[in-house]
Write a structure and sequence with these properties.
With 412 residues, the chain is an alpha/beta fold. It is built from 17 helices and 15 strands.
């Protein structure tokens, strides 16, 4: 089942935001995330807020686009009433679940509502996630013709055995076909990979990397499998059906990925993400790591504006009920303290190639910098401001593998 929410205070039924969100709003970019909570099959490793048809009962998936669109209109009104400056949307991301289980027209309907309520900035990035077996060329063409710029395919692996362990429904042969279709209609392409599945060997991981690189995507994500408590996969490992994951092997797999991707012309810009150029980075995901503002629509979706974070009710039926009543679908919220916002900034910006400005650290925290350089965890030249740039904390390859140690040293 989906993971539990963090504790928070009750969110107001009218969605009103505190006055604190206005501070610095003009300097923050604004994005929109739309969560589509439907999957054909629940993958054994997944603890996201997603549901299959059998789990939803009488909940009607065909109404979802209009419900999410209603929340988007509600959100735009809340932001106006809160006195936030008008800002066009710079990034849009449809995630899930599997957004492309909905008709393409439904995704366009929701995007059109975003355009109508906020406006979409010139050159905005508009992405949808997709399973390789959930789209065809016509579907992708409809998206491209109506404002989508990017598609992120959940490839995960090119090895049938690994796909089976992960409960993925597509075949490896399907991925090159959908990538070709996306390119034909003018969409940028990102591929998502998962490494460290139970029983996966280093050689099998290399097979997946080679297959992904052969398709020359614009962007590639590689995530270490984390076995979350309460998932089907966790139960299978506990019963001895699969071996436990191996942290040392995870590290070898990460190093292999970084080496092969660099050799193929991809630069890392976040611990788990590589791109061909700055222009093909996921600007939407970068907005999370740099603390920008975003409204997130849909069951269980988490929003953040100016240090206030809130999350919607999880079940699609409860979500639909609140939308039909014209009240906020938010369940709880959290007003982040200055200390919490600082800790998040350190946690997130030490993961990216642009780095964390050393000026953002307290004097007491800066004392850890020399030790991190000596331990080979951060780039010494970046930390010293070589080349005239402002001093920054940028992790080395070793630092990326030991990211928690970097954060712990800075915040201890």
């Amino acid at each position: 089942m989906p993971s539990a929410f963090p504790p928070g205070e009750p969110a107001p039924a009218d969605g009103a935001l505190p006055a604190s969100v206005l501070a610095g709003a003009d300097e923050r970019r604004f994005g929109v995330y739309v969560h589509v909570p439907y999957c054909r099959v629940r993958c054994g490793y997944c603890d996201f807020n997603t549901y299959t048809a059998s789990e939803l009962g009488t909940t009607n998936q065909s109404h979802y686009a209009s419900e999410a669109a209603a929340e988007l209109s509600f959100g735009a009104k809340v932001m106006r009433d809160s006195g936030l400056p008008a800002r066009e949307v710079s990034t849009v991301f449809f995630g899930g679940g599997t957004p492309t289980l909905l008709p393409a027209a439904d995704l366009v309907l929701m995007l059109d509502r975003i355009r109508d309520e906020w406006g979409i900035a010139p050159g905005a990035e508009v992405t949808t996630e997709a399973n390789p077996d959930s789209v065809d060329r016509e579907y992708l063409e409809h998206l491209a013709d109506n404002g989508f710029t990017r598609v992120s395919f959940g490839m995960q692996s090119a090895v049938p055995k690994v796909l089976s362990v992960l409960d993925r429904t597509h075949s490896p042969e399907r991925v090159p076909q959908v990538v070709a279709w996306a390119r034909e209609v003018g969409l940028q392409v990102s591929l998502d990979l998962i490494y460290g599945s139970p029983g996966e060997t280093l050689e099998e991981w290399e097979t997946s990397l080679d297959a992904a690189l052969a398709m020359a995507p614009d962007h590639l994500s590689a995530y270490a499998l984390i076995v979350e408590p309460g998932t089907k996969l966790a139960a299978q490992i506990k019963r001895g059906e699969y071996p436990a994951t191996d942290d040392d092997l995870h590290a070898e797999m990460y190093e292999l990925a970084d080496s092969k991707l660099a050799a193929a012309g991809y630069d890392w810009y976040e611990v788990s993400n590589w791109s061909r150029s700055e222009e093909t980075r996921s600007r939407h995901n970068l907005s999370y790591w740099t603390g920008e503002d975003w409204w997130a629509a849909g069951p269980g979706a988490h929003s953040h504006i100016g240090g206030t974070r809130w999350w919607n009710v999880k079940h699609p039926r409860a979500y639909a009920d609140r939308i039909s009543q014209g009240v906020s679908p938010a369940l709880e919220r959290e007003l982040l303290s200055e200390e919490a916002r600082h800790e998040e900034q350190v946690l997130l910006q030490t993961r990216i190639a642009d780095g964390l400005p050393i000026s953002a650290l307290a004097e007491s925290e800066r004392g850890a910098v020399a030790g991190l350089i000596a331990d080979g965890l951060i780039d010494g030249r970046a930390a010293l401001g070589s080349g005239g740039s402002a001093p920054r904390i940028v992790p080395t390859l070793r630092g990326r593998l030991l990211a928690d140690r970097v954060v712990g040293a800075l915040l201890s």
